[in-house]
Design goal:
Chain A: It holds the Pfam family BPD_transp_1. Chain A: One of its GO terms (cellular component) is plasma membrane. Chain A: Belongs to the binding-protein-dependent transport system permease family. Chain A: Keywords: Cell membrane, Membrane, Transmembrane, Transmembrane helix, Transport. The structure holds 3 protein chains of 3 kinds. By secondary structure, chain A is mainly α. Helix content of chain A is about 70%, strand content about 0%. Chain A has a domain at about 100-290: MetI-like (MetI-like fold), CATH 1.10.3720. Chain A has helices spanning about 10-30, 30-50, 85-120, 120-135, 140-150, 155-180, 185-190, 195-235, 245-255, 265-290. Chain B has 2 domains: about 10-95 and about 175-335, Rossmann fold (3-Layer(aba) Sandwich), CATH 3.40.50; about 105-175, no CATH class. In chain B, strands 6-7-8-3-9-10-12-11 form an 8-stranded mixed sheet, with helices on both faces. A 4-stranded antiparallel sheet of chain B has the order 2-1-4-5. In chain B, helix 11 crosses helix 13. The radius of gyration of chain B is 21 Å and the shape is globular. Chain C has 2 domains: about 1-60; about 90-315, MetI-like fold, CATH 1.10.3720. Chain C has 14 helices and no strands. In chain C, helix 5 packs antiparallel against helix 10 (about 225-245). The radius of gyration of chain C is 24 Å and the shape is globular. The chains are: A mainly alpha, B alpha/beta, C mainly alpha.
Chain lengths: ~300, ~350, ~325
């Protein structure tokens, strides 16, 4: 496909100018700014939700079950047990972000070193690509089913299943970027100077590969958030009574006849979170693209 | 060579500009040129001087953002501003193109026979089978051995020189009046180059096609062209029959170009290659100056105050746009450059 | 060509073997006595002993593995703990539903995704591109099971246009079958359509700015011919790969979609099995999914070599 010809940052000063250029491009893109603000807001709310939430998530009120949105004291209404929907959504979003970050962290911790090794050492490439094939053969939901069978369903297992399923993607982008960087002059120069493989990988390749890793992470988080919602919806993820957007939707499905509106808000929040990450990821990729306005 | 008959292609005052974020950039500025039947005209200049843009604009192949003014007449028919459907009938049938990179200019997933046949199917309404048979003939015509087998090959199975011959076969499939060859030999080995130029010459002789060959390689020009047009920063700065140009360059830029490339008959050691100082200016409108003034050894106030017109500078059909044309052979320019 | 296929066949076989080992180890990692898990309702010591002998649980691990592979290859996945029916017969009733759903979803996604992707690339910078890009981003971000829920609530229940749940086998009544499965298939296809659209658009932008498209234009071809014969054909290579890689996501999606629309397929069987701790069923599901993924991707590679002559002839992807 297209060949990148622009040399990547090698020295400290070069990377600083590159960073300012990327930041400037992001600031000029209204979609990037809006999505970043949404994400920052969501992050703050998630962090502070235990204090911000108007009610405790477990506080039931059997006198007022299925209160519709707009009810005094319950902005988004109450659920089947009379619990405050707004409070549960806030903490559910917090759990979504938690799983998203945990899953992506898992995939990066395993995927980045493997991707570096696959791209840098020819001998490892075949072995690692078999491992990638193996992982790809187990879709995240099937992985979650297996894990749930062995260890029981939980937030942690959901995050691990999603994270493992995201490893191949990380390996792929890191490997191809390593291959590209390895062929550049400054890496060859370092090798000629007698630098050890580990030194070259840590000092030259990894720092220059951060941008593709960052982009990969930004698009992996929304996928993980959607994954968590699916797993929790099916009962393979976060277990009730802990608040989760996915389980809220499962409840809504159960009581669809009595409270059809209950299915709306949790879904909107999931979509909003995922959309903000995806939009920001696109903007980030555009800003990092040396060819500028390419896509 | 023959210039008596009416020109096949008549370019008058052709200008092309592109809008950019920082304003309009002019790429071609007032180019005029005639192409007689069976004539090979070389267009020469450094990269970025507007050669390729000129070539692409002839059949309306520039991106839609390009603003093209002036006139391009093919056998009297105006092409600038013509409808897209009219231009489509011209492309590949009356004006055909050969591009620089035969590797990437052919579609990797279609056989060469299919790609040649496609032109015939579109313009000659040939059946797929007839087009394929004709493709074999065309491949033979451009000197590809065992064409009957090669016709079913994919581009990646052919060598660079063969691919360029395929491009040529595709271009001449409908017997075009004008063949535009944009750096046709640049990506090829020298030995292969000679073969490709020979094919072009043969086709001109056999089919009477006019050829506009664009290159930065004066050796190619000397080898094949009847006349030469020298472009600099979007303008034609000199135009002359090929022998005249090499013997008596009038424009200071042409003189610089000639002394910057090795010539037969010049001696290493005594005649050294000279570099033209400075860089090609950014292609922006400079209506009130000679575009070469900043790099020219002979530039004065007049050069910076007004753009010189293309004027007769003696000899047959030899024009140059220079206020202070060289009087004698390249040595003068070389002296001035030292 | 032959060498390429041989290499891919060998790699697929190896991956299949590896995934079988993973599942085998996974089964051993299940809590409790595997014999107990396999026993179903009858848990008398004699029955357990018989199971141990039947499944070779008293043998060394490599022997057990060999026997395990043999049984799986014969389609003997054991007996459902819950219903007592052989897992293989459960699969034969459930799989057709899932296959139909998935194939339909892929077709819908490919049609929408390739169409919108080509449109977005060709109408670069125009409203059509913004619209297509925006819809793709939303398609990528929307939880499709939620979309399914809303569709049932506001489309099926409210208007009665589509049945809210249930399934009719295609052989019984093709029209009613389609009526039941079309909505789930559209819902399942949305995410995949978004991914295909983005890949198609990006590949088309690359092709459209390529030298061979310039050549095609210079030949005097109509825009339609330039786009379909020259640009799209090259872009489809990328799209086919994407569909192959997204198969895992599609299987995951099918499980949820079946659950929501109450389709009696593979997915519903899986979820039921998890909650009933029906280990033989879970094991069969996991193993079959992996095998299906590997085999289908092998065929995707075959398809790939049909589209791209560079692979077909020389055997290495350019």
């Amino acid at each position: 496909m297209t060949v990148l010809t622009v040399p990547m940052a090698e020295t400290g000063t070069a990377s600083i100018t590159r960073r300012t250029r990327v930041l400037r491009r992001l600031r000029r893109n209204p979609l990037a700014v809006v999505s970043f603000v949404v994400l920052a807001l969501a992050g703050v709310i998630a962090l502070l939700s235990p204090w911000l939430a108007p009610y405790s998530v477990d506080q039931t009120d059997f006198a007022r079950t299925f209160a519709p949105p707009g009810t005094a004291g319950h902005l988004l209404g109450t659920d089947d047990l009379g619990r405050d929907v707004l409070s549960r959504i806030m903490l559910g979003a917090r759990a979504s972000l938690q799983v998203g970050l945990l899953a992506v962290a898992t995939s990066l911790v395993i995927g980045v070193p493997l991707g570096l090794a696959a791209g840098y050492f020819r001998a490892w490439d075949a072995v690692i690509s078999r491992f990638t094939d193996l992982l790809l053969a187990f879709p995240f939901l099937i992985m979650a089913v297996g894990l749930a069978a062995i260890r029981g369903a939980s937030l942690g297992n959901a995050a691990v299943a999603i994270g493992i399923a995201q490893i191949p993607g990380v390996i792929r982008v890191v490997r191809s970027d390593t291959l590209r960087l390895k062929s550049l002059d400054f890496v060859a120069a370092a090798v000629v100077d007698g630098a050890s493989d580990l030194w070259v990988l840590a000092r030259h390749i990894l720092p220059n590969a951060t941008s593709v890793i960052l982009v990969q992470a930004t698009v992996a988080i929304p996928a993980a958030i959607l994954g968590e919602a699916v797993l929790s919806f099916l009962g393979l993820g976060i277990q009730p009574p802990a608040p989760s957007l996915g389980t809220m939707l499962a409840t809504a499905q159960q009581f669809a006849a009595r409270a059809p509106w209950a299915a709306v808000f949790p879904g909107v929040v999931i979509m909003g979170l995922a959309l903000a990450f995806n939009v920001f990821g696109d903007a980030l990729r555009d800003a990092l693209d040396p060819k500028g306005d390419r896509r | 060579m023959t210039t008596a008959s009416a020109p096949v292609l008549e370019i008058r005052d052709l200008s092309v500009s592109f809008p950019t974020e920082t304003g309009t950039v002019s790429a071609v500025d007032g180019v005029s040129l005639d192409l007689a039947a069976g004539e090979i005209v070389g267009m020469v200049g450094e990269s970025g001087c507007g050669k390729s843009v000129t070539a692409m604009s002839l059949a309306g192949l520039l991106p839609s953002s390009a603003r093209v003014t002036g006139s391009v007449r093919l056998d009297g028919t105006q092409l600038v501003g013509a409808r897209e459907s009219a231009l489509r009938r011209v492309r590949g049938r009356e004006i055909a193109y050969i591009f620089q990179e035969p590797m990437t200019s052919l579609n990797p997933v279609l056989t060469v026979g299919r790609q040649i046949g496609e032109v015939l199917q579109v313009h000659e309404r040939m059946s797929r089978r007839a087009a394929r048979a004709r493709a074999v003939e065309l491949l033979t015509l451009v000197g590809i051995p065992s064409a009957a087998q090669r016709v079913d090959n994919y581009p990646h199975q052919l060598s660079g020189g063969m691919r360029q011959r395929v491009m040529i076969a595709m271009a001449v499939a409908c017997g075009p009046k004008v063949l535009v060859a944009d750096e046709p030999t640049t990506a090829l080995d020298v030995t292969v180059q000679a073969g490709i130029l020979q094919v072009l010459r043969d086709l001109r002789d056999r089919l009477g096609t006019s050829v506009l060959i664009i290159t930065h390689d004066l050796g190619v020009i000397a080898d094949i062209a009847d006349r030469v047009v020298v472009m600099y920063a979007g303008r034609v700065v000199e135009r002359a029959p090929v022998d005249d140009l090499f013997a008596h360059p009038r424009h200071r830029y042409t003189a610089g170009l000639l002394s910057a490339s090795p010539q037969p008959g010049r001696h290493a050691g005594t005649d050294r290659l000279t570099e033209i100082p400075g860089l090609v200016p950014v292609l922006a409108s400079q209506p009130d100056a000679c575009t070469f003034a900043d790099r020219c050894p002979a530039a004065d106030e007049q050069c910076r105050a007004a753009a010189p017109p293309l004027e007769d500078v003696g000899g047959t059909d030899h024009v140059a746009a220079c206020w202070h044309p060289c009087i004698t052979a390249p040595t003068a320019a070389q002296e001035a450059n030292r | 060509m032959a060498r390429y296929l041989l290499t891919r066949a060998w790699q697929s076989a190896l991956t299949l073997l590896l995934s079988t080992i993973v599942v085998f180890v996974g089964v051993r990692a299940l809590p409790g006595d595997p014999a107990l898990a396999l026993a179903g309702e009858d848990r008398s010591p004699e029955a357990l002993e018989a199971i141990r002998r039947h499944y070779g649980l008293d043998q060394p691990l490599p022997v057990q593995f060999a026997q395990y592979v043999e049984r799986m290859a014969q389609g003997d996945f054991g007996v459902s703990i819950r219903t007592g029916t052989p897992v293989s017969s459960m699969l034969t009733t459930a799989l057709p539903v899932t296959v139909e759903l998935s194939v339909l979803a892929i077709l819908i996604a490919a049609a929408l995704g390739v169409g919108a992707g080509v449109l977005a690339a060709v109408r670069r910078g125009r409203p059509a591109e913004w619209l297509a890009n925006g819809l793709a981003l939303i398609g990528l971000s929307v939880p499709h099971f939620w979309l399914g829920l809303l569709a049932i609530l506001y489309l099926s229940v409210a208007t009665g246009l589509f049945p809210a749940s249930g399934f009719v086998p295609i052989l019984e009544d093709p029209v009613d079958n389609l009526h039941h499965i079309v909505l789930p298939a559209v819902i399942l296809g949305t995410g995949l359509a978004a991914i295909i659209m983005r890949q198609t658009r990006s590949a088309m932008l690359d092709s459209l700015s390529s030298d061979y498209v310039r050549t095609a234009k210079a030949k005097g071809l109509r825009p339609r011919a330039v786009i379909t014969r020259h640009a799209l054909r090259n872009s489809l290579i990328v799209v086919v790969t994407v569909v192959g890689l997204q198969l895992g996501g599609l299987i995951s999606g099918a499980v949820v979609t079946e659950q929501i629309f109450g389709l009696p397929g593979f997915g519903k069987m899986t979820i039921d099995a998890v909650f009933q701790r029906d280990y033989p069923v879970i094991q069969a599901v996991v193993l079959l999914t992996a095998a299906a993924y590997i085999v289908i991707n092998f065929f995707v590679d075959l398809l790939y070599s049909v589209i791209d002559p560079r692979i077909r002839v020389t055997g290495d992807p350019a």
